[in-house]
Specification:
Layout: H1 2-9, H2 14-21, H3 25-46, H4 53-67, E1 76-79, E2 98-101
Antiparallel strand pairs: 1-2
Helix pairs in contact: 1-3, 2-3
Amino acid sequence: MKICLRYLGDPGYQQGIGQELGVSQATVSRTVDRVVNNIVAQSNEWIKFPTTKHELMEAKRIWQSMYKFPTAIDCTDIGIQKPNRHGDEYFNRKRKPTLNVQATCDAR
């Protein structure tokens, strides 16, 4: 899973990611393929978005009432220590080492 997350976070050269993580390029390729295919196979069950205006408004209401979240959520940068290997790849536009993350989930 770590291999796939690393690749999806920065889909650069599989060989470089393999060297960074101590595996072959072929292992990176097979791992990404298997993980992504398994996610896609389960996507209809795991991933559901509001499909009507009523469902969307209800989802916003729940997030706001339970967690005091704003109506709009964006990506965010999470500060990290600069990695020893390929560390310059982690600098954001403000020249700070970060990972850019975004997630979505049901409030319940």
